[in-house]
Structures are given as structure tokens and as C-alpha cells.
């Protein structure tokens, strides 16, 4: 008989919960974004047109959604949530940073590649050494990349259509918001 440690089980359940939440939110945004005939400046649908239910409610995420003409959509949740998702327009880059964590509260970052063709760069800012990897989700399926958050990392859309991804942090303790350092990754920029 095997014994399961409750702490490792709760970490797995927590990670699965964040991944499932991100996937659902991403699919909803994909559906909305692809089927919408309205302007991209309008971030939220009018609730009066949405189906009403006694089993769920809507919440306003417009303050957490950022739209960039050059990069795409980025959903950054409230500070106590470690997950976010976004899109990358063709030839655009997200990242070229690492997360400075003096208190060691971030164990790792996980990027889930949901749709599209990507180039992923990861490297060491101290040695200026890096690796480039390419992923075609239509051929490989949805994949997740797990790496230490203090590594310089960037994601580029190398396809012709908008790509979608999700990302979250594995934390060792609660934190408000991870700091981002872009300057130390300047020598290994993905452009």
C-alpha cells in the first residue's frame, strides 16, 4: 500500500486548479475574441446579452485586461493570484525578462503554450548563454514549459496568426506581485 503525502497532493491539486482555470478563461476569451464583431477596444461584453444563471455569476475583469496594438491581449489577475494568460500577435515578443525574487518565494514559472507556433528563449544573464526552442502546437499538442523564474525568458510568435498562452508561478509562500527585471536580460534579447 502506498502512502500519499497530503502536502504533495495539495500542490498537485492546486497546480491543476490553476491550469484548468487558465484553460477555461483562455478558451472563453478565444471564443469571444474570434466571434466578436465589435471593436477590440471593448473588453467586456454587455452582461444583459449574456446568459443568466442561478449556478454562476459574472465578475468584471476589465481592469486586469491590457490590450497592446503590437503584442495582443494580456490578462493580469489581482496580485494574490499567480496565473495570467495572453495572446501574442504575429512576429511579436513577450518577455525578455526574469523575475527577481530575493525572498525565494517563486520556485518556478510554468508557461502553457495553447495555440500557435512559438520560439522560446531561455538563458543566463550572467553568462550570456541561452537556448532557443521552437514549438508548433498544431503538431505537438498543448505543452507546458517549467523553468526557474530567475532565468531570462521570452516567447515569440513565429506563426502568421495570433498565438495564445497561459502562465503561472509555483510559489513557496504567499507574495503580492513578482518583480520583473528586464535590464539584466538585454544581452540575450529575443527580437
Q: Spans with pLDDT under 50 lasting ≥5 residues? A: 36-43
Question: What helical percentage do the residues reach?
Answer: 10-25%
How many angstroms does the end-to-end distance come to? 53 Å
Number of domains: 1
Q: Which structural class do you get from the secondary structure elements?
A: alpha+beta
Helix count equals 2
Major sheet strand order: 1-2-3-10-5-8
* Count of strand segments: 11
Main pleated sheet: 6 strands, antiparallel
Provide a short characterization of the protein structure.
The chain has 191 residues and is of the alpha+beta class. 18% of the residues lie in helices and 37% in strands.
Structural write-up:
It is globular, with a radius of gyration of 18 Å. It has a six-stranded antiparallel β-sheet with strand order 1-2-3-10-5-8. It has a five-stranded antiparallel β-sheet with strand order 7-6-9-4-11. The chain has one domain (6-188): Jelly Rolls, CATH 2.60.120. The protein has two helices and eleven strands. The protein has helices at 6-35, 137-140; strands spanning 65-68, 72-75, 83-88, 93-100, 106-115, 117-124, 129-136, 143-147, 152-157, 163-171, 179-181. Residues 36-43 have low confidence and may be disordered. With 191 residues, the chain is α+β, with helices and mostly antiparallel strands. 21% of the residues are buried.
Keywords:
single chain; 191 residues; alpha+beta; Jelly Rolls; six-stranded antiparallel beta sheet; five-stranded antiparallel beta sheet; 2 helices; 37% strand; globular
Layout of helices and strands:
Blueprint: H1 6-35, E1 65-68, E2 72-75, E3 83-88, E4 93-100, E5 106-115, E6 117-124, E7 129-136, H2 137-140, E8 143-147, E9 152-157, E10 163-171, E11 179-181
Antiparallel strand pairs: 1-2, 2-3, 3-10, 4-9, 4-11, 5-8, 5-10, 6-7, 6-9
